[in-house]
């Protein structure tokens, strides 16, 4: 990712806190693309960074993504202090707070001047100046912050400086005959990075001066081993944190999936429970109707049992009393149908015994079958009429509960 040209907004006349408050509270097309719930945390992170490292100044500027999109973002621009061989150097850098910050790490770029060069094949900085350190790769929201990031960069750059000054071209002036003809070595250039050591004169650059490297005192091997061990330990810890975060994120995604599945099943169960409640209500209504009909029948039996005389038991025709004309017609047609059945059975027995000739049997059976057909057709029509009448009565009872017999 190549850093875009700086187009910083002028924030002079405002304090840093007021500038950040105004920038994060803007609305409309000039609003910064950060989530509302994270703007307060972004403001606090930048204020804490400016307090710990006053050389990094918060600004707003336009940032161009790799896909060509240009957005207005917050940045911390300035220098990062670096300790190298007992001298403090300031590394020019810019920390871009992208749209997903602070949930995702910022984008860090070194901004070398024309007199500086990025060290080739640096483990943490590519040739475009983009910085990628373990702390950025294992960024964990909300514990990770800008202050710890800058401290980590200062420590790592102190162990392996990413910038060095360009070599000055050799002098082409003509030799002075009055001077000795011995070869003169070029004076080493001081580093183009601004030094905060306060000492006047030449300070050794991190890279690019072989003369100073030959006269540099040897480091203590124990200190080198200790420093390398600490670096390796920090990288291992950051790697373990990254893997742990990846594992936890996978588990959280799985739990979210289970939660969604449980929610769907819960909704299905609630629908099933609602249908069961409605079915129970319908069955209770039918039970009440059956119980009321049973009460009506019991009342009728009690009312008519005392009216029956012992002498009337043998009177078959008076055993049943029809309620209406349809019931009377149904009783008559059913009796006729059963009588025809009995007659046909008797004719079959008579034919088997030879008591009746076959032609007379056939003629009689034809007549009885015709009569039975009309009886059964009448029974079917009466049943349909009674069913329609019962449905109408039940509908009237449901509309008017007061009409139920007590």
Automatic annotation (TrEMBL):
Name of the protein: Tumor susceptibility gene 101 protein
UniProt-listed Gene3D superfamilies: 6.10.140.820, Ubiquitin Conjugating Enzyme
GO terms (BP aspect): endosome to lysosome transport; protein transport
Record flagged with keyword Nucleotide-binding: no
Ranges for region Disordered: 160-214
Species classification: Eukaryota, Viridiplantae, Streptophyta, Embryophyta, Tracheophyta
Record's keyword annotation contains Transmembrane: no
Alphabetized SUPFAM superfamilies for the sequence: Endosomal sorting complex assembly domain, UBC-like
GO cellular component, one term: ESCRT I complex
Main location per the UniProt record: other
Gene Ontology molecular-function annotations: ubiquitin binding
Biased composition (Low complexity): 165-202
């Amino acid at each position: 990712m190549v850093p875009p040209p700086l187009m910083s907004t002028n924030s002079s006349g405002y304090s840093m806190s007021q500038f950040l408050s105004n920038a994060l509270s803007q609305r409309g097309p000039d609003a910064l693309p950060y989530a509302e719930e994270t703007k307060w945390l972004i403001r606090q992170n930048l204020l804490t960074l400016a307090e710990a490292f006053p050389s990094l100044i918060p600004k707003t500027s336009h940032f161009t993504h790799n896909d060509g999109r240009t957005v207005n973002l917050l940045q911390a621009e300035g220098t990062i202090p670096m300790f190298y061989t007992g001298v403090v150097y300031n590394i020019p850098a810019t920390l871009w707070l992208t749209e997903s910050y602070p949930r995702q790490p910022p984008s860090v770029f070194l901004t070398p001047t024309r007199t500086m060069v990025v060290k080739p094949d640096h483990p943490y900085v590519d040739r475009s100046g983009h910085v990628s350190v373990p702390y950025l790769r294992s960024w964990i929201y909300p514990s990770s912050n800008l202050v710890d990031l800058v401290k980590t960069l200062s420590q790592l750059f102190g162990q392996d400086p990413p910038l060095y000054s360009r070599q000055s071209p050799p002098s082409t002036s003509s030799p002075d005959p009055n001077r000795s003809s011995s070869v003169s070595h070029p004076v080493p250039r001081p580093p183009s990075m601004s030094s905060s050591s306060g000492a006047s004169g030449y300070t050794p650059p991190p890279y690019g001066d072989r003369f100073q490297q030959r006269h540099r005192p040897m480091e203590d091997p124990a200190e080198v081993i200790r420093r390398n061990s600490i670096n390796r330990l920090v990288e291992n810890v950051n790697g373990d944190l990254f893997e742990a975060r990846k594992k936890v994120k996978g588990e959280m995604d799985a739990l979210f999936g289970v939660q969604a599945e449980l929610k769907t099943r819960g909704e299905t169960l609630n629908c099933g429970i609602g249908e069961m409640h409605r079915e129970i209500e319908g069955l209770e209504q039918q039970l009440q109707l059956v119980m009321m009909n049973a009460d009506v029948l019991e009342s009728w039996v009690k009312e008519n049992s005392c009216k029956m005389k012992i002498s009337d038991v043998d009177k078959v025709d008076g055993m049943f009393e029809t309620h209406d004309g349809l019931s009377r017609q149904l009783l008559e047609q059913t009796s006729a149908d059963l009588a025809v059945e009995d007659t046909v059975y008797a004719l079959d027995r008579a034919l088997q015994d030879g008591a009746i000739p076959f032609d007379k049997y056939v003629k009689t059976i034809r007549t009885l079958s015709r009569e039975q057909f009309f009886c059964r057709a009448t029974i079917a029509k009466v049943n349909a009429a009674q069913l329609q009448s019962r449905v109408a009565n039940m509908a009237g009872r449901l509309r008017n509960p007061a009409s139920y017999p007590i």
